[in-house]
Specification:
2 strands, 430 residues, 16 helices, mainly alpha, two-stranded antiparallel ribbon, disordered N terminus
Length: 430
Amino acid sequence: MAVADHRAATFTVAGTVAGNRLDAAGGASRTDHTVLWLGLLSVLYNGILAFINHNIVPLSMTHVAASEGLIMTSAIIYILHKGIYETDLPAFLFLLFTLIVTIYVSVLNRMLFIDHFRNVLIIFCFTGLGGWSNEKTMKLAFRWASLVVMIFLIFEIVSVPFYVSIVHPSDYFANTRGLLPLSYNTTGLFQNALGFPERFSFGIIDHRSSSIFLEQVSLANFCGVIAVYLISMWEKLGRWDRLLMIGTAVLILVTNDTRTMLIFCFACIVGYFVFPKIPKNFNLALMPLIVAAGFLVYVLKPNATGDNFTGRINLTMKKIMELDPLAVLGLSVDRVAEFADSGYVYLIYAATIFGVIALWLFVCLFPAGRTAAQRRCAHSLSLFIFLNMMIGGTAVFSMKIAGLLWFVVGYMRFHDSPRIRQGHPADVLS
């Protein structure tokens, strides 16, 4: 009788385990629509607002801020509903530390300054969403985002007037950012997207493409996000997803005239084979190495100026060496707008040197590095951010770029190592 009971119990446990596996397998085929839409909106919300602004009712900066706030609030509610696990603590503590720095900077400068907190909140929200996403949901988010970007890019290439009739970037930035169009800009495009003779160009179109992002810098950086996604997920992507992503990236590169992302994409191609052989903690040396390389460029070509690689690097290095000592401690936040084109200097002024160190550690240590795919993701993320901060400004922190970027980082961290609470795995799909 005891033997029979034991066998019955064994079959019951086995059946339960098998049932749980079948449920998980069934769940893995389901789409988490909340996560999907929040991921898509992070990329598309400016385009949607621009359409409304031009075709329905004029908007203002308040509407842009409210839209971002609604997306992040929805993400936070979703994450809190799922629960904060021990494995989520690095992102949570990073956010908490940034809040403390924000309060410190605001009190010392007698002004509310939340720019950097917003940047880190975006990271927190989308690493969380990515961590709770299943593979199908993440693939759908990138597939639909890339498809929309490609469609609007083709519209812009084929007919600028038609593209402008849909989103009219110039009017949108005038109403929501106060950036009035220059007198010579009669195209309806964002004025910074207009080309000039000295600018690096493939000559496909007569301006730098913008697509659904409405401005050229975000589109260029989205190409970098695609590259990070591709080398992280390449082995799990189907033929059509690969073709869509590669096609979108190539079309961006040949029309946007972005030198940085062209270099980054080639680095990712090489990195696909090299990154798995490099320990993840090597990333800790990457930012110092990039800054040291920037200093070397400055020493060799101290007079280099202009909108080119050396000119951009020199601009950043000059601003670093001219740093106000008080800025390192967060006492000159009123000057932060002067450094929007120099990522490292902006961060120091906005978040103090301690905020810079915290970001450096989080970018380098938060991504997983157990598998080859995870190391590809970790190394490409660090290269993308730290290189961008040397030759660009704050674009990598905007939701349009940071949303899906940190989405894939969160997914890669948790997809093969589910959160555990009281001995049970968390439900990724409910």
